[in-house]
């Protein structure tokens, strides 16, 4: 159909929690894939606290075509050793990129050094011929930077041949975050909306922006479409989806959004 020639597209599959698989121009990227039941074995958690609402929508062993895996930080729902070990075997040419603090963990599960890349704010990563990845600082309660200037928590801006995708990882909304993103025109913004509170903090659970803040950030940065993440997998670490949708409806009429179902593949199209 000739009218589609006027559009660029990207395929995005939602695989649970904050996990995505993005495919464009023959290059395939997974972000924070989490596809096992390893959360049930987390130390120092109350019994039955981490209970999935649904099983992983795909198997890590089936991901045989990945070129790159991005991890935003070392928490196990973002860097799951069992998932990443299976992906490394299924896609033997796949590279793994993450904050520098994550590299020892990736090496421990047997991923060779030559397949690992440390990412740093201010140092873009070029890959796939048409993809530039800009590491963005994240405030998972706080921004943590080591003595050499490497962030513990990151988000990623994927500048992909005319389509700009922002994956926030885990972060609060801060003025500094807004400042770091204002230079970019974001087509797709993937934001956590599970929030934070004292009682989760007592259990060692670091928090994120809530639904109202995520909606406000999308409007502040003029994101074309905003997508909520981090709300549907673990009931004990969620504030639901209703407030996010209502906030957009009541306060930000016209702001586009998309709510994924687990395993769903969505083709986003942008006029050239």
UniProtKB/TrEMBL annotation:
Organism lineage string: Bacteria, Bacillati, Bacillota, Bacilli, Bacillales
Gene Ontology molecular-function annotations: hydrolase activity
Stored Pfam families: Lactamase_B_2
PANTHER family named in the record: UPF0173 METAL-DEPENDENT HYDROLASE MJ1163-RELATED
UniProt cross-references to InterPro entries, sorted A to Z: Metallo-B-lactamas, RibonucZ/Hydroxyglut_hydro, UPF0173_UPF0282_UlaG_hydrolase
Name of the featured protein: MBL fold metallo-hydrolase
Organism the protein comes from: Paenibacillus baekrokdamisoli
Catalytic activity: 3',5'-cyclic CMP + H2O = CMP + H(+); 3',5'-cyclic UMP + H2O = UMP + H(+)
Record's keyword terms, sorted: Hydrolase
Domain Metallo-beta-lactamase: 53-231
Function: Counteracts the endogenous Pycsar antiviral defense system. Phosphodiesterase that enables metal-dependent hydrolysis of host cyclic nucleotide Pycsar defense signals such as cCMP and cUMP.
